[in-house]
Structure formats: structure tokens, C-alpha cells
Amino acid sequence: MQNTGKLAGLTLFITGASRGIGKAIALKAARDGANIVLAAKTAEPHPKLAGTIYTAAAEIEAAGGKALPCVVDVRSEEAVRAAVQKAVETFGGIDILVNNASAISLTSTEQTDMKRYDLMHQINTRGTFLVSKECLPYLRKSKHAHILNISPPLSMEPHWFSNHVAYTMAKYGMSMCVLGMAREYAEANISVNALWPRTIIYTAAVEMLHGKDSYEYSRKPDIMADAAYAILCRQPGTRTGNFYIDDDLLAQEGVTDFKQYACVPANDQELTQDIYVSAILTKAKL
Question: How many Cβ atoms are within 10 Å of 10's Cβ, its own excluded?
Fold first, then answer.
């Protein structure tokens, strides 16, 4: 999907932006000339995960955007508040919030220790609520206000809970923020939506969960970046409270070539579907 320049000069506050989907969204907006606040924990190189907020900031600047790297643990009110204030002082406001930071453990109830349970709920649900809360006073002042949560469509099918109830509860908490805040801030002209991938996206987290072989049956983060870009370019207030699936949204935008997003284009028909997505819909789309 081609850039349009519609995000030029706007300020995006993106959590978990040092790598993966968050960084891909940041780079896509940077090509329009947007200001990017990278709110993430990774300030020092990780032994197993590539990239820091500073290496990501350098890529954003090279792509044409302005970057403000902020060391932020979204569990900390003080850290979030300080980063929001620094963003406003640096760029004059906040126009778009992307809640991307997330923790995952696809474990059964008995195999989920409470430290991991707390981590997922504090980062996914509480972190999303906290960062949204702190950004909202500035989003109210923006003429192009969006909140986009990287979270799944809400479904009460027991299947999505039974195998990893702790993670589902935490991730659905992000989606419940969409459902509630979209209605709560409709009159403030703030669009609040969710975006989720139809297939697994090859990131460091996916590699740790599924192994390096998952590369062959994954899509690149670019598809999520393009889908996020399409949502964030829309006039706020026109579409809110939606739970979008990446390729479905892009198809509506006129994209017809999805092989470009496959890590291995020849495997485009054999991609692994992500959780929380209907198998019937996936079969119809791929």
C-alpha cells in the first residue's frame, strides 16, 4: 500500500515500538514525515531480541520521520506520564496512540504461574488502559485523533479461552478498551479501533513461540503496518469501535496482491492462521 502523506506532521505515540509490528507501523508513518514517540522498555541490546528504541529511532529518522525514543514500562504510571509529557513538550501534542505493547504465554491454567499471569494483565489490559488514559487529554485537542489497539475481535467461543485462558483474558481486556472507549469518546471525535492479523506475523515473539521454521508460514509485519496506516489515515469519527482483520481491511482498500506480504511468497496458500480468527474465514481469504 502506497504512502499518501496524510500523516505528515502528526505525532504518533506507539508502545512496544522497538521491534516487530510496532516498529513496522512506526516506519510506515515515518515515511509520511510523522513524528514518532517510541515508548518501549528495550534501551540496551537484548541477548535474544534484536533492536532497541535507539536503533528503531535511527531507522525512523532515516525513513523521513522525527523520532523521540522514551524508555517506558507501561506498567509504571510515572514512566508513562513522563513519556507523554515529553512527547507533548517535544512535538506540541499527541494525535495518534497505538497500543501495541503486549506479553504472551499460551499456557494452560495449571501451567501459568502467577508472575506470568500478572505480567500479561499488567502490560496488556492495564497498560493499554493507562497509556490511553494519559494520552486522552491531548487526543481531545487533536484534529486527527485515533487510538488503535493491536488486539483481537471479541468472541465468547469457549475454544479461544480453554487452551490459554490467562492470555485470552489479558488480550481481550485490550479489546474491551476499544469497545468501551469508542462509545465513551465518540462525541470527542476520537476514533478507537482494533487491528489483528489473520495469519501469524513473523516477529521475535513468534520465533520464540513457534521456532524459526514458522518463518516459512508467516506474513511480514508490513501487512499490519499497511492496515494500520489505512485506519489511521481516515478522518476521525467516521469509523470507530471496529475490530479489523488486516487482509480483510486491505482488500476493502483495493489491495489484491497478498503474496507480497508472505515471508515466503510460494507458501501463500499454506500460511498459519493466528488465534482468535475463524478457520472458515481464513480458508476463504487465503
Answer: 24
138 catalytically annotated:
no
Contacts of 25 (CB under 8 A, 6+ apart): 12, 14, 17, 98, 100, 224, 225, 228, 229
User: How far apart (Å, rounded) are the C-alpha atoms in residues 166 and 97?
Assistant: 25
> Residues 54, 117, 138, 167: which is the catalytic one?
167
Taking the chain (286 residues) in runs of 10, the rounded mean pLDDT of each run is 94 95 97 97 70 92 97 97 98 98 96 98 98 98 98 94 96 98 97 97 80 89 98 95 97 95 92 83 41
The pTM for the full model equals 0.94
Please name the residue ranges forming H helices in 144-203.
159-162, 165-184
- Residue 95: what residue type? D
C-alpha cell belonging to residue 172: 481481550
The rounded Cα 66 to chain-centroid distance in angstroms is 19
